Amino acid sequence: MLKNTLLVTGTAGFIGSACARLLMDEYDFHLVSLDALTYAGHLSTLLPIMDNPRHTFVHGDIADTALVTRLLDEHRPRAILNFAAESHVDRSILGPETFVQTNVVGTLRLLECARAYWNGMDEADKAAFRYLQVSTDEVYGTLKPEDPAFTEDTPYAPNSPYAASKAAADHLVRAWHETYGMPVLTTHCGNNYGPWQFPEKLIPLVITQALAGGDLPIYGDGMQVRDWIYMEDHVRGILAVLEKGRVGERYNIGGFGETFNLNIVHTICDTLDSIKPRSDGQSYRTQIRFVKDRPGHDRRYAISPAKTSGELGWSPRESVATGLRKTIEWYVANGEWVKQVKDKGFRDWLEAQYAQRMAHGKGLAASSAQASGSSAG
Ligand code: NAD
Ligand code: TYD
CA 172 → CA 6, 58, 105, 341, distances in Å? Predict the structure, then answer.
């Protein structure tokens, strides 16, 4: 008999932890959360729910078949939500292998554990069980300015090692449905932002660098477009798909947030100028630096959530303007968290990653070595 329990992976990361917190705050599920605590996983993101009796945290790898099998047998979840992944495109360019290991082999192992578990169920439980794969819009490749937004029928054309590894995982999930009849669902979302995001992705990197008085690196001309969504809107979309999505289908989740990178960075600078002005009276925009472009850099993403909204009644609550403001305020107020998660490994990464991009061949000026959250200038 299945229980009202979800096994959610990658729960110490940015979006997985948002899902875990929301599940505890607004739903009555029991939650078993599994995370390998890589550089991107931080238990501090789960602090608000660590003592919740409905939550069990397990430190482990999705590729650990024995562990996952034991968790499924013990907890009898009615669904598995797979958020666990290596998720940063720049890291995938510097070192693709861990992306294949976690995103492809990890998903394969999780699917195989799920299949064995599912095969042992009676017909009613088999029909009720769901495996949900959290994918990305990046599997669809890049768009020209005049192209329509990605739909669920857009052909796959991944360009980065990250996107290729996520696409491979999606193909496995699809095949496990077609071949074994597994009740799977797949979601594709645009770029997420919000509180608790590890400061290596554009928005938290720029906010924390700005506050630390550092360089704000813009790849190429900064006119790339991303379709931004507040992470809680993404999570609510995933939970709508879990509850009401049709088995075997894919669902796009988008926040109507198409914006040029440079506009995002300008908005962050202008917001900081008003809520935490630099002590020298200059704008944070003076910290912007144009640096060498990312290889294979996708020019534009845009994702149509029409199917998800039409079928499931989901729509995003935040606009880029409201969500970004909340996010910037959160980082201003939570410099301590930022300091905690930026360890020496993070500083080494910034040095290696940006040295190739900056004209002077050194990492970012005034990066995480300086206290974040303090006023610049
Ligand atoms: P993240 O990098 O912040 O977190 C990933 C989490 O997975 C970390 O806590 C890490 O410790 C954990 N993890 C990594 N390898 C693991 C393994 N082998 N076993 C167990 N746990 C492991 O990522 P995120 O931004 O929260 O993204 C979550 C999911 O959403 C990913 O699948 C990603 O591809 C997808 N996604 C992200 C975005 C985005 O903008 N961030 C957009 C669309 C889809
Ligand atoms: P990122 O947050 O890494 O997400 P993704 O590559 O998955 O879209 O990057 C978002 C956009 O911002 C992307 O076009 C690359 C760009 N970018 C910069 O210009 N500078 C940076 O330092 C980073 C990290 C990203």
Answer: 21, 25, 10, 33
